[in-house]
Amino acid sequence: MPTVQELYELWAGDEYSDLKKALDQSREPRGAEWLFELFAGLGPKPGQTLLDVGARDAKHAIRLEQEHGLRVTALDPLPLHCERARQAVAEAGADVEVVEGRAEELPLPDGSVDWIWCRDVLSHLDLRRALAEFARVLTPGGSAVVYVTVPTERLDAREAAEMVEAAPLILRTATEIERAADGAGLVTLRVERIGSEWRERMVEDGDWDAVADLLRLARLERRRDELVERYGAVAVDAARNGFLWGVYQLLGKLCPTVYVWERRA
Fold it and tell me: 100 φ, ψ to 5°?
């Protein structure tokens, strides 16, 4: 550990200035588009079937159907999401079937799906039941592309507990997820630790204002009692979690991760 004198001399020196300049340069981080590039690289073929688990407004389902000529089912448990998904499908003229249903009880026959696309959903599910369902509906040799955010060792127990208490969220470690996948009969073909890259890219592209979210967090903490009285604790805690999610990804406390799993033949 440096002395106080050494620290201030460091801050005043040319090397520290050069370090800051180096950190001002982009490292060309991957953005969200990379996930679609990864999927395309796996070789989907026209006419194959794809299930989008947790499709929300079906934006991804529509894109995958249009880019690859797949027969797509968009599944979501919320009637509101399904309504919006059907509207989006109709407006896009896409060949996507929208189905209301849960990942833990997929309303599809055994071995009926060539691909599963699942983004930002595993943290809300009964993991073992959902992955067992993935394996059940996949064809032998079929694959699942799954994006999930996992906690790192930088996220301390108090921070994790506050996030989980404020939302229907389960922060599972990478080890837990990988063991559950193996237990379901899914073979890991690829693991990509995205870390802070997508958030860096969002800041660089102007798609996310990290400073604005930090200001919101600071204001929320200072005015919490007033905001809770006006909007309710559920809304305030949900907002706090939403702002923290991106900040924690940028700081390395949460790590977005992509798995490519294949059903054992």
Answer: -85, 125
pLDDT digits (tens, 9 = 90+) for 163-211: 998 888 899 999 999 999 999 999 999 999 999 999 999 999 999 999 9
Contacts of residue 72, defined as CB under 8 A and 6 or more positions apart, other chains included, come to 49, 50, 51, 52, 61, 62, 64, 65, 94, 95, 96, 97
Rounded to whole angstroms, how far apart are CA atoms 181 and 126? 12
Q: pLDDT digits over 11-47, tens only? A: 898 888 998 899 999 999 999 999 999 999 999 999 9
Residue 138: strand pairing partners: 113
- Neighbouring C-alpha atoms within 13 Å toward the C-beta of 55: 34
As given in the structure block, the two tokens for residue 78 are: 């919320």
Q: Domains of the chain, with CATH numbers? A: 28-54+103-263 (3.40.50.150)
- CB of 142 closer than 8 Å to CB of 257: no
- In tens, the pLDDT along 50-101 reads 999 999 999 999 999 999 999 999 999 999 999 999 999 999 999 999 999 9
The residues, ordered by sequence, that sit 6+ positions from 76 with a Cβ below 8 Å of its Cβ are: 54, 55, 56, 82, 85, 98, 100, 101
Strand bridging mode 138-151 / 254-263: antiparallel
